[in-house]
Amino acid sequence: MTDIVYLVALVLLPLILPVLVVSAVLGNGSWILERLKSTLTLDEERGLAEQGLLWVSTISPFLYFVALGVIAWRDYSISLTSDGLSVFFSISTLPLGALSLLLPLSVLVSRLHATKQTAKQIKITNQKNNIDLFHSHRKELFDYFGQIGEVEYLDCLVGEFKVHPRVHKSFFIGKPEDGVPQTNIDVFEDIERELSSARSELDLIIRDVNPQLTYSVYIANFCSTIYRLSRKLGLPEIYVELAERSILVPTKLEGNEEKELLTVGKTTDEAVAAYRYAKSYYHNLCDFAGKEPVHAEDENLKYIEMGGKFRKTKEEKVIERLHKNEIQQAIQAKA
Question: Are 206 and 310 in contact (CB under 8 A)?
Answer without folding.
Answer: yes
